């Protein structure tokens, strides 16, 4: 059993491909409001590239960019570290409140 987590983010794009030799890869580009809003050296949103399952584009058929709830797991990375890996995505169906309207 894997530990899973949920992320509420704006997915800007999704890309997948096959390298020479047949190895498949996939990634998504996500954006979220900045965590540190007091940082004078940053403006705008945090944009991040995340690995995802090759079948992500098969399971999520909606338009992009879109607000999605992503399901992820932690995968082992080099040097004993870990990184998030997205295994599924679905439309964000949370009701839009006054505060979240102002963020959009």
Descriptive overview:
- The chain has 104 residues and is mainly β.
- It has a 5-stranded mixed barrel with strand order 1-2-3-5-4.
- The chain has one domain: Beta Barrel (OB fold (Dihydrolipoamide Acetyltransferase, E2P)).
- Helices cover 10% and strands 50% of the residues.
In a few lines, what is going on in this structure?
This protein is mainly β and 104 residues long.
Strand share of the residues?
over 45%
- Uncertain stretches of 5 or more adjacent residues: 98-102
Calculate the mean pLDDT score and round it: 87
How is the CATH topology named?
A: OB fold (Dihydrolipoamide Acetyltransferase, E2P)
- CATH C-level: Mainly Beta
Order of helix and strand elements from N to C terminus: EEEHEEH
**Would you report the number of β strands?**
5
Query: How many individual helices?
Result: 2
Q: What general outline do the C-alpha atoms trace?
A: globular
Taking the alpha carbons of the first and last residues, their distance comes to 36 Å
The second-level CATH architecture is Beta Barrel
Structural class from helices and strands?
A: mainly beta
As for the number of domains, it is 1
Largest sheet: 5 strands, mixed, barrel
